[in-house]
Structures are given as structure tokens and as C-alpha cells.
Design brief:
Blueprint lengths: L8 E5 L3 H9 L6 E7 L2 E7 L1 H5 L8 H7 L4 E4 L2 H15 L6 E3 L4 E5 L10 H14 L5 E5 L2 H10 L3 E2 L5 H5 L11 H9 L5 H6 L2 H8 L1 H11 L16 E10 L2 H21 L2 E12 L4 E12 L2 H4 L4 H5 L7 E13 L12 H16 L5 E5 L9 E5 L9 H5 L7 E8 L9 E4 L2 E14 L15 E8 L4 E6 L6 E6 L2
Helix pairs in contact: 6-11, 10-11
């Protein structure tokens, strides 16, 4: 046998990965299932043990499952969250060995050569894995063998276990052919030929198998038995967005610090562009000759990887640095990054949005990015709730203001309701507001607005409101409302 077969591979399968993830955060007492919309129907994607005991299974229609199990609790599956959780488990598995890769969407593969003795042997290592996963509320089945394929087969079809070195054939022989990671079509064809176990497949002439089923079946068989190598692709390390410059002589002038920062920015932005990411938070660390360090943090309104736009934004922070007896090292790191795909290059140069983002960043360096805010429309018929205040750096300007501003019955200026005197359900002929007397000229309305009963709002406890658009003879155009259930008149807005 080749040296490649001497690898020791652990396959960890999480059969209930999706439901375990959800139930860890919100435990459910009783049958529980996650559904996925497939073929124009909601079907069970993952379920817990209580649901399986009720006769439910994967792929079953959700409506049929509810008919069988009336107390079934369910919610849609979040596949992206499942993958993030699987990556978390992969990082956890590095406590056992540095060589950890993903196995499909619900498993891990570990190459533990040279690591098992650190845990007291292979069996002790697997016991420690099971114990820790069980305590975390995660169902797992673990297999260990010389090859990736054999370990996967033991985890999925033999309820886990260890195949000693060179014993892959003995452990795989009694298993079904599906344990070779074959496609369903190939498994069905083999079963029609009367071949149900791996030992029966090995007994067939190889030429006959290739002629009938192609090369995939023998490829998987040889990989499982160790006759052909199969690599484990570990998860790539996250890119590090940091650059450093050590100076032969200390510097102290702000212009020299900015020149060094410019060189570091050029290198850092090249890394960011290569990964199609942009920096949201940058940290410049300046080490002085007395080993003290000063930091300049720059928070950007938008993710950027353009050195020419970022460099001037550092000027204010660098001007406040105390160089002491000199600075001998500069380090620049992007501590927070976001995806920033490549865009079509335009001949028009920087857009208005780029200029606005730079302005928000400049203001943010003075007063804080969270204090630069914008008003966004909200989906509510209540005037006071028709907008929200959001951070300008972490939101996009709305494109629906034009349609909302063209609404003739909504004032440009809105303020808290201010009481006026009036009797009856129609606007008063004369009234006083803000120490001024007004005579009603033309009125339009009413527009009745009901409170949002599902929200607790003290200002709307008076019930429905009848809004009127009132044009006074003095030229002011006001927005008045009347509360029928608790009679009273109020002014809440003024039109332009």
C-alpha cells in the first residue's frame, strides 16, 4: 500500500445540524421541524427526535406532517445560518488537529495523523468529541479510518466506529453500496443487478462495472479502499488585512507620517481589491522610539479600497498625534471589512454618492459616525410613525421620498399636536394658534386615520382622528385633526 493510505481520517456527520442549531438557541418541548420550499410545496428539511418518533421524515410535505402530528412546531430553514454554524464547528474542531475541512453541507473531515496521542489515543479522542458535542446539544456520528471515503461510510452507515489501520475492506464489505458516496442513479442500477453490498461490488469484474456504470463507481471504491489518494481540503485561513513599515530613522513631521501612511494604504488597498472587499474601519498604529504607541482610528461611511479617497481622511487624526522623540514604525490594519465587488469603470469620475460618503466620513471623524443621521420613510399610516431616524453611514437614502412628497394631503412640516379651541366636527370658523388669530377660508377633508391597535402609543389613546386641510384667510395652510371619541381640535402640521 502507498504512503497515502497511512493517513488517519475522522469524518464527523451532523445529521440534525439545522434543527440542533435552532433548538440550541430556543429549546422546544415536543416535535419540531424545519421546512424548505421545494417543488412548489413546503417539505420537511430537518427534524428532531420527537418528530421522528411521530412517524415524520425528511422530504415529507409539511401539510401532511401537520395532519399526522397536530402539535408539530415548525419554521423555515435558514441555509446560510446553517453554513455559518458549520464553519463555527470547523473552527472548534481545530482543537484536535490543524487539518480540518468541510464534508458537504452537514459534516467535517479531519486528518488526525500525529495528533491522536495528544488525547490519549484515537478512541479517547473520539470519545472526547462525542462528549463535548453532546453537552453542546449537537447530534453527531463519527467514523475513523485510513481514508476519507471509509471514514465517511462508517459515520453515515455504521453509526460511527473505528477501522484499524489496513482494515478498511473488512469494515466496508458489509455496508450498502450507497456508503461509497455514489449518486442515487448508480445505487438503483446496482440494486437492480442484485448488488447491494460493497463486498458484492468488489467481486464483480471491473471492466463490466465500468461498461455499465462508468468510471465514477470504481473511483469511489478505490478511494474508500485506499487504492487511489483523496485529499482533504482544509478551510482557508481568513485573509489578514494589515501592513507594516519599520523606518531606519525616526520621523516626527506630520507630512512624513502622511507619506508613510500613503505607502501603507497603497499596499493595503491592493490586498482589499484582490479579495473584492472594502475597509469600513482602519486603524493606524504609530510606534515611537520610547516603545509607546499612538493609534488613529478612521471609520468610513462606506466600504472603500481606494487609497486616494482614504488618505486625506487620515489628516485630522495624524495632526493630533504626539510624535515624542520620533516614530520608527507604522502599522495599518483594516479591522472591519465588507464585500465590495468590482464595479464598471465610468468616464464620469466620482459620483455624487461618493462625495456624500466622503462628507459623512469627515463629519463622523469630528462628531462620530453615529451622530450623522438621515430620515427614512417607514411603512405606517400614522403621521408620527411615517419616518425613522437612521445612521447615515449604515443606511441607504430612500428612493420612495418622491412618491411620498407628492401626496397632497401630507404637510411638509410635522410637529406634535397643539390644541386649539373649536366646537363640532367641522373646522372652526375662527381659532387661535400660537398666540395668533386665524379665520378659516377653504377646507378639504376629512381623512380618517385609525390608530395602530397592535402598538402601544399614548398619543393615540383618544381613538380615531379626522384630518382636515385648512387654508386660512391669513395665508397659512394648516393640517388640523378632530378626535370624535374625545372631542377636541388640534394642529399637527403646516403645508408649504
Amino acid at each position: 500500500m502507498s504512503a497515502e493510505v497511512q493517513k488517519r481520517v475522522v469524518s464527523v456527520w451532523f445529521p440534525n445540524l439545522s434543527s440542533d442549531r435552532v433548538l440550541r438557541a430556543r429549546p422546544v418541548d415536543g416535535p419540531f421541524a424545519l421546512s424548505l420550499h421545494q417543488a412548489n410545496a413546503d417539505r420537511i428539511y430537518c427534524l428532531n427526535r420527537q418528530a421522528e418518533q411521530q412517524g415524520l421524515h425528511r422530504g415529507m410535505g409539511l401539510s401532511d406532517a401537520r395532519a399526522f402530528c397536530r402539535n408539530l412546531q415548525s419554521q423555515p430553514v435558514d441555509l446560510k445560518a446553517d453554513q455559518r454554524f458549520l464553519h463555527v464547528l470547523a473552527r472548534w474542531a481545530k482543537r484536535y488537529c490543524p487539518w480540518v475541512g468541510l464534508e458537504g453541507v452537514d459534516g467535517l473531515t479531519l486528518n488526525i495523523v500525529g495528533a491522536a496521542h495528544l488525547f490519549g489515543g484515537e478512541e479517547a479522542m473520539l470519545d472526547d468529541m462525542r462528549l463535548r458535542l453532546t453537552r453542546a446539544g449537537i447530534t453527531a456520528r463519527i467514523g475513523l479510518a485510513d481514508t476519507r471515503g471509509a471514514a465517511w461510510a462508517l459515520a453515515h452507515f455504521s453509526k460511527g466506529g473505528i477501522a484499524a489501520t489496513g482494515q478498511a475492506y473488512a469494515r466496508l464489505g458489509p455496508l450498502p453500496v450507497a456508503a461509497l458516496r455514489l449518486e442515487e442513479k448508480a445505487c438503483v442500477t446496482l440494486q437492480r443487478l442484485g448488488v447491494r453490498r460493497i463486498s458484492e461490488l468488489i467481486a464483480l469484474p471491473r471492466a463490466t462495472v465500468t461498461r455499465r456504470l462508468g468510471r465514477e463507481v470504481l473511483l469511489r471504491l478505490d478511494q474508500a479502499l485506499g487504492d487511489l489518494p483523496e485529499d482533504i481540503s482544509p478551510l482557508p485561513e481568513a485573509p489578514h488585512y494589515g501592513v507594516r513599515m519599520t523606518l531606519p530613522e525616526p520621523i516626527g513631521l506630520n507630512a512624513d507620517v502622511m507619506a508613510g501612511t500613503e505607502r501603507l494604504l497603497a499596499r493595503l488597498c491592493d490586498k482589499l481589491r484582490a479579495q473584492e472587499t472594502g475597509a469600513r474601519v482602519l486603524q493606524l498604529t504609530l510606534r515611537r522610539v520610547d516603545q509607546a504607541s499612538q493609534q488613529v482610528e478612521l471609520r468610513l461611511a462606506r466600504a472603500l479600497h481606494d487609497a486616494a479617497r482614504i488618505l486625506p481622511l487620515f489628516q485630522r487624526g495624524v495632526d493630533q498625534v504626539d510624535a515624542g522623540y520620533g516614530i520608527d514604525q507604522l502599522r495599518l490594519e483594516a479591522t472591519q471589512v465588507e464585500p465590495l465587488p468590482a464595479r464598471q469603470v465610468s468616464h464620469a469620475g466620482a459620483s455624487d454618492s461618493d462625495a456624500l460618503d466622503d462628507l459623512i466620513t469627515r463629519l463622523g471623524t469630528r462628531i462620530g459616525l453615529d451622530n450623522v443621521q438621515r430620515v427614512l420613510p417607514a411603512d405606517s399610516h400614522i403621521p408620527e410613525h411615517s419616518f425613522i431616524i437612521a445612521s447615515a453611514a449604515f443606511s441607504e437614502p430612500s428612493q420612495s421620498w418622491a412618491a411620498r412628497s407628492s401626496h397632497p394631503s401630507r404637510p411638509v412640516q410635522l410637529f406634535p399636536p397643539e390644541a386649539i379651541t373649536g366646537v363640532g366636527a367641522r373646522p372652526p370658523a375662527r381659532f387661535r394658534w400660537r398666540r395668533m388669530s386665524f379665520a378659516t377660508g377653504h377646507v378639504t377633508g376629512p381623512e380618517r386615520i385609525a390608530p395602530e391597535w397592535w402598538l402601544a402609543d399614548e398619543n393615540w389613546r383618544s381613538g380615531v382622528r379626522d384630518y382636515w386641510k385648512v387654508t386660512t384667510k391669513q395665508g397659512r395652510r394648516l393640517w388640523l385633526f378632530y378626535t370624535p371619541q374625545n372631542p377636541g381640535w388640534f394642529v399637527q402640521g403646516e403645508f408649504a
